[in-house]
Amino acid sequence: MLSENLPENFSDLVVQVVMNIEDAIAIFDENSQVVFSNDSGSVLIEHSGEEIAKKIKDFKHSSEDSMMYRHMKRSGRWLRFYIKRLMAAEKRYFLFVAEDISDLKLAEQTIAQLAHFDGETGLPNYVLFRDRLNMALFRNRRNNLSSMVAALELCSSDGTSSIEESTIINMTDELIKGIRKSDTLCRFSRREFLLLAEDLKDQRSASTILRKALDSFENWKAVSGEPSLELNSGFVLLPRDGVDPEQLVNKAFASIQNRVPGK
To answer: Distance between CA 75 and CA 149 in Å, rounded?
Structure first.
């Protein structure tokens, strides 16, 4: 909307406004030559001119009046850019606008991290574990292999109910060293963990993997000054022991020997 009382220097005013906008703004002609750009646009064109020209070329062959792209990454920053057709004096131009959305991407990644990982240990939480368990069930049916769900419970042999969070974090850092990169160690509750190991031939393979994880715990305990801590464990195999994720987890915890009552 334009006011009826435009100042005589309106064009100069518009240019000043555009030049001071932080977003990169540029106008290209039909030959992809720059007709105008603000300072941010000039910097972006200098570093990513070829990529921008290719996007405009692709856009020219489309029937869309405008198009938005996500994401172009430059110098560690994430950009979202927008291209729109313009007409002036019967000539066709293309408006290019790029917005830095790095903060938005960081927020999205943080939300995703909080939704799928434990905030203290960085381990997958139960939501992510359950997703991976469902995928394991699907792959088992297709490949005729087995997987293991192991339940681990950290407790104190001297009856102490309180275990420092820093101790649990240090323990998980060492525990994860004893499992394969393809395995998933999940923090189920404060002192309970789940381990998913796929592509197993038989129960012996499962026992070997779990033994290595427990050996890592024993190595950590020997040097940590926490001799009273114990890591009780039990496991089930799928599909042998079931195919329902919740039931498999319950069976795994039920299989733990010396399980603390009420846990």
So the answer is: 42
Sheet with strand 34-37: strands edge to edge: 34-37, 24-29, 91-100, 77-88, 66-74
In tens, the pLDDT along 74-103 reads 667 788 888 999 988 889 999 999 888 888
Residue with tokens 């399980």: 259
Q: Sheet containing 229-238: which strands, arranged edge to edge?
A: 184-187, 192-200, 146-156, 229-238
d(CA 33, CA 200): 59
Distance CA 59, CA 194 (A): 49
Quote the tokens at residue 210: 């779990």
Which CA distances in Å does 150 have to 4, 90, 173? 74, 71, 18
Tell me: the pLDDT tens digits for 199-213? 998 899 999 999 999
The H or E element containing residue 116 is: helix 102-116
Query: Domains, the chain, ranges and CATH?
Result: 10-104 (3.30.450.20), 117-254 (3.30.70.270)
CA distances from 249 to 8, 42, 88, 113, 204 (A): 75, 57, 66, 23, 20
Pairing of strands 77-88, 229-238: unpaired
Q: Tokens standing for 181?
A: 């990169």
Given a contact cutoff of 8 angstroms between Cβ atoms, the answer to whether 151 and 233 are in contact is yes
CA angle 112, 118, 121 (to 5 degrees): 130
